[in-house]
Structure prediction request, 297 residues.
Amino acid sequence: MTTELPLDPDSVITECLVQLSELPTEKTACIEELLSLAVAAGRVTNLEAAHESIFAREATATTAMGNGIAMPHAKTAAVETPTVVFGRSLSGVGYETPDGEPVELVVLLLMPADAIDAHLTVLSQISRSLVDPAVRDHLRDAPDASAVVTTLRSALVGEADAGSEKT
Amino acid sequence: MEIVAVTACPTGIAHSQMGAEALERAATDAGHEIHVEVQGAMGTENGLTTDQIETADVALVAADIRVDTDRFAALPTVNVSVSEAVTDPEGLIDRAARSAHDADPRTETTPESRTDGSHGLLARIMRLLR
Prediction:
């Protein structure tokens, strides 16, 4: 392990990177809408490059993960800081899913091309946390952006306080 | 039972991580011990040790990229796509357990089949039919 700066979880997800109103049900429009949040938040230095990178990844294999989650993601020089964008759709986004469950939660992960391992590890905590049904419920039922941010930030630092009832 | 597993996907940030987490939870819930190596953009995380592989009863490979499986040559191995680890971890752990069971020469003396050979065979057929 080289000495790597830890990632401030507060910088990864903020309230302006959360959309609680219904996402478009069409997949491309849905991802573009989340990307536009990142652009509006000043996270993207090159929109075209970011767009291309996300959809190139999407073309190799769907990022619908099952359990109602899709995680489009890209590692690109078009962003400078690791960024998480969250949106949801109660009517389900038009993804082909491995388990037939409609995609209700969409989490866009943007990583700088030169992201260091420590940052990638932090972001991978988000993926892991979404395996917990309690975390998914929190995100689905979150009343406001602040609740989403709280849940995702605790996921980033590996806290299970989002509700892992291990019975 | 002891399981060694590898999850792998091209980026290593989404599928392989979720798959690893899902397998860890499912295995623990089923009362098994599991070690999961994750391969992807970050290289190899939590690499399996020779010791872990030697003492394992079964290997489980959930990968969408090429993974070195030579090290599992001595083990019964279940190979699937990484998405299956995310969507059906319980089913996979169950499959791994059956592979280990079927490959184990001591199988006939496990408590389940010890009392009566025919029951053991019947139980195995029933599991296969399930």
